[in-house]
Design brief:
Oligomer: single chain
CATH superfamily of the largest domain: MFS general substrate transporter like domains
Strand content: under 5%
Number of helices: 19
Distance between the termini: 10 Å
Membrane topology: Multi-pass membrane protein
CATH class of the largest domain: Mainly Alpha
Number of domains: 2
CATH architecture of the largest domain: Up-down Bundle
Function: Proton-linked monocarboxylate transporter. May catalyze the transport of monocarboxylates across the plasma membrane.
Order of helices and strands: EHHHHHHHHHEHHHHHHHHHH
Organism: Monodon monoceros
Number of strands: 2
Protein name: Monocarboxylate transporter 13
CATH topology of the largest domain: Growth Hormone, Chain: A
Keywords: Cell membrane, Golgi apparatus, Membrane, Symport, Transmembrane, Transmembrane helix, Transport
Length: about 425
């Protein structure tokens, strides 16, 4: 483990970016494309949309609720073995799901087991990346998370083709094989020790500090609201288009259209986050507001041209808000507490991930259409934008640093000796 006074802003960090790129593709690329399986599960098990929606929601919620476990294990053993173990769990869950005979089996295999694997992969990888970068953090995060958009573009039609060739059980076996590549992603992670690490203390001390950190708590509330509506198109857009008498393959392809503009939005937002002066939270508020408005406009679009235009816009704005969402956290709590902070945020916002899709499915069952589902999803994102305005320095022109906003910790930071020159250089 190399000891550095500050993040190196490069070096092996670019290999961590590569690892995070494939890891994000194999976690959220699969989750975003899982709407293709939604119609198949409804038909196979003859269950209402609300109950089937719990499969993806439990997976998202477990991934986020279990993030503090992945963070604590990464603090103790380093991110590499934790992510590799998570890859094995994610693949095993998909493998067992192929033999399911009821929705309960899918809740346990995909939702609980694969979700636990995702919890051990996503948060430790993103936290490790944040520790390698400071000035280029938003751009590095944006590049890493482009894997979500590119894989969504490929996975949605691929999964639809697999369903047509091998049915849903055979398709899940192949998704399990894809998920096993998370083990290779974990092998690329090299832990990095920074000078501020001894100051922030262990996981218990960090948790106590964060629970008394007002800006961190408000930011957590904002992300929970955003998360409630964020995934709705990826779960129910295909079903919404089927209600409009679209054929299955074009409906799945429209979901891929969002994936075309998604990586463009992530890279553009990452570059702007590093280039534009001022806190990154302002960019996050902008992209969140635009995404909420677009979701609310979906029910009014009936023509294919309008639906394609909205989907392209949604892909760009929803992709753009992701890298800056992760870049705001180090500005609030510092890189020394990023493992614990990111894990805690993911755990709390799992409430939104757990309730969002079932609420959308319930509104569909009650009203008979997805109109209320998309409007309510947009309202949740707009509410999250309102909370972001309350963060510190939101209206300042200068960008805050990555130092934790805690006067006690900042005073202790000045007492930490810098490592000797050349120590830990690789």
């Amino acid at each position: 483990m190399a000891l550095r006074a500050e993040p190196p802003d490069g070096g092996w960090g670019w290999m961590v970016v590569l690892s995070a790129f494939f890891q994000s593709a194999l976690v959220f690329g699969v989750l975003r494309s899982f709407g293709v399986f939604f119609v198949e599960f409804v038909a196979a098990f003859e269950e209402p949309a609300a109950r089937v929606s719990w499969i993806a929601s439990i997976g998202i919620a477990v991934q986020q609720f279990g993030s503090p476990v992945g963070s604590a294990l990464s603090t103790e053993f380093g991110p590499r073995p934790v992510v590799m173990a998570g890859g094995i769990l994610a693949a095993l869950g998909m493998l067992l799901a192929a033999f399911a005979t009821s929705l309960t089996h899918l809740y346990l295999s995909i939702g609980l087991l694969s979700g636990s694997g995702w919890a051990l992969t996503f948060t430790p990888t993103l936290a490790c990346l944040s520790r390698y970068f400071s000035r280029r953090r938003s751009l590095a995060t944006g590049l890493a998370l482009t894997g979500v958009g590119l894989s969504s573009f490929a996975f949605a039609p691929l999964f639809q083709w697999l369903l047509s060739q091998y049915a849903w059980r055979g398709a899940l076996l192949l998704v399990s094989a894809l998920s096993l590549h998370l083990v290779a992603c974990g092998a690329l992670l090299r832990p990095l020790s920074l000078a501020e690490d001894p100051v922030v203390g262990g996981p218990g001390a960090q948790l106590a500090n964060l629970l008394h950190h007002g800006p961190f708590l408000r930011y957590t509330v904002a992300l929970t609201l955003i998360n409630t509506g964020y995934f709705i198109p990826y779960v129910h857009l295909v079903a919404h288009l089927r209600d409009l008498d679209w054929d299955p393959l074009p409906a799945a392809f429209l979901l891929s259209v969002a994936a075309i503009s998604d990586p463009v939005g992530r890279v553009a937002s990452g570059w702007l986050g590093d280039a534009v002066p001022g806190p990154v939270a302002r960019l996050l508020m902008l992209w969140t507001t635009l995404t909420g408005v677009i979701l609310a406009l979906y029910p009014g679009a009936q023509a294919p041209t309008a639906l394609v235009a909205l989907t392209v816009a949604y892909g760009f704005t929803s992709g753009a808000l992701t890298p800056v969402a992760f870049s705001v956290l180090p500005e609030l709590v510092g890189t020394g507490k990023i493992y614990c902070g990111l894990g805690l945020v993911q755990m709390v916002e799992s409430i939104g991930g757990l309730l969002g899709a079932p609420l959308s499915g319930y509104l569909r069952d009650v009203t008979g259409t997805y109109t209320a589902s998309f409007v309510v999803a947009g309202a949740f994102l707009l509410a999250g934008s309102g909370v972001l305005i309350t963060l510190p320095h939101f209206f300042c022109l200068s960008a805050p640093t990555s130092k934790p906003q805690d006067p006690v910790t900042e005073a202790l930071d000045t007492k930490v000796p810098l490592p000797r020159e050349g120590l830990g250089e690789d």
